[in-house]
Design brief:
12 strands, globular
């Protein structure tokens, strides 16, 4: 049966565009300036003076913070809530500090679904949509490259190809972020925090302590600090210091700041991850995670 010439042409355009993206991304990182990190002004915490209910989550956070992180994760699994937020991130990449990015996000836990729309400092994609197991390339060279996400390129590249599928663990994704899109969300953040804390505790290397309370994004939060024996990017731990802000009502980490040194100064920032304007229970449907919904 003869092949459809239109499909062949479209396929060739996508391949050429993929190569074009790779070239542009290389140039972007090769000549990227070292952006000044934008971080919170320390931790202006105040220790609460009032008595704390010994059965409360706050008491657990104060006395057994690792157990509190696990409790928060279990609660997320039980409640299974969708949400939207403004995600702000900045990361130290091999070529230097990235620009601070601001992304509007919709998230659904089942099936695991993420829609990201960049509103400030996008990379090569303006919008990315990922649904676990929905877009899989069975012909990929390795299992790592099978899971795909739909991407809308930034202007004016979207005039050439309005959308393109890319592997979420592919070379372009790894060069643009320390974390892949399937690591987004409160539960995945808690998974990472708990994983490395458990590893350190088993080695008697964990320093995780309650530091007090403050406000973030206009909401009251508790602050805990984790210290690990970080030895660099190739070591077994992802950072030396992690300042973790836990929302008092939601019991989720609405901000995490990771540093390479004890002093936790802006120049030592490895990653900043902020969840602002969090809105739970949006009743998100499949349509919220379909490219066609956004004209892709």
């Amino acid at each position: 049966m003869p092949r459809d010439p239109k499909k062949n042409t479209r396929r060739r355009i996508q391949i050429l565009f993929g190569l074009f993206l790779a070239g542009l991304l290389y140039v972007e990182f090769e000549f990227n300036q070292d952006y000044e990190p934008v971080v919170s002004k320390g931790i202006p915490v105040v220790l609460a003076a009032e008595p704390v209910d010994t059965n409360s989550f706050e008491s657990l956070l104060r006395n057994k913070p690792l157990d509190a992180l696990k409790d928060a994760r279990d609660r997320l699994v039980r409640e299974n809530r969708d949400y939207g937020c403004t995600f702000v991130k900045q990361e130290r990449m091999p070529k230097g500090m990235s620009a601070e990015q601001e992304v509007e996000v919709l998230f659904r836990p089942e099936p695991y679904s993420v829609m990201m729309n960049w509103i400030r400092n996008p990379g090569m994609a303006q919008r990315v949509i990922y649904v676990k197991g929905k877009w899989v390339d069975e012909t990929a060279e390795s299992a790592e490259l099978r899971e795909q996400a739909w991407c809308k390129p930034i202007k004016p590249l979207d005039l050439i190809v309005p959308k393109i599928k890319r592997p979420i663990h592919g070379p372009l994704a790894k060069k643009s972020s320390r974390r892949s899109i399937d690591q987004f969300g409160f539960k995945r953040a808690l998974d990472l925090l708990v994983h490395y804390s458990d590893l350190a505790e088993a080695r008697n290397e964990l320093d995780l302590a309650f530091k007090g309370e403050t406000h973030f994004d206009g909401r009251p939060v508790w602050v805990i600090r984790r210290r690990l024996p970080y030895t660099g990017e190739n070591g077994k731990y992802p950072d030396r210091i992690a300042d973790i802000y836990i929302d008092k009502d939601y019991h989720v980490p609405v901000a995490v700041y990771c540093y390479s040194q004890d002093g936790a100064k802006p120049r030592d920032l490895l990653g900043k991850y902020e969840y602002r304007n969090v809105r739970f229970d949006l009743d998100l449907t499949d349509a919220n995670f379909e490219p066609a919904t956004y004209g892709m």
